[in-house]
Amino acid sequence: MTRDMGWIDIGALDDVPLRGARLVKSRAGCIAVFRTGENEVFATSNTCLHRGGPLSEGIVHDRKVTCPLHNHVYSLETGEVQGADSGRIATYPIRIENGRLLLEAAAIAKADAA
Fold first, then answer.
1. Ramachandran assignment for 5, one of left (phi > 0), alpha (psi -120 to 50 degrees), beta (any other)
2. Is-annotated flag, keyword Thylakoid (predicted)?
3. Are 76 and 42 in contact (CB under 8 A)?
4. pLDDT tens digits for 56-65?
5. Other CB atoms closer than 10 Å to residue 35's CB: what's the count?
6. Taken in order 78, 71, 56, 62, is the CA torsion positive or negative?
7. Please, which residues bridge with residue 98 across strands?
8. In this structure, what CATH number is given to the domain that contains residue 60?
9. Nearest CA among 40, 55, 57 for reference residue 89
10. What are 80's strand-pairing partners?
11. Which domain does 109 fall in, by range?
12. Domain tally, the chain
């Protein structure tokens, strides 16, 4: 990982499979980086609110992920639980630049302070 003007290079876009995820460990905890079928990327907490399931092992569909343990569905855009359940997981600013994934360092630092 390298830092560049407030953003942390966490690897290549191609390191994350289409409709899949990869796990990034930070001081803020484990962050799941998701790639949709349309090549969009999102970063969220890796932990399901229901029973702590690993969201990075879930099913990515549209702009959502389904927890592999109990099928709770989260919006990758907002972190909001979908359906009848309520709650929100943390989301982190992420972007693609020249085929590289960049995660905003300030967002992770803010999560550390919380």
1. left
2. no
3. yes
4. 999 999 999 9
5. 23
6. negative
7. none
8. 2.102.10.10
9. 55
10. 88
11. 2-113
12. 1
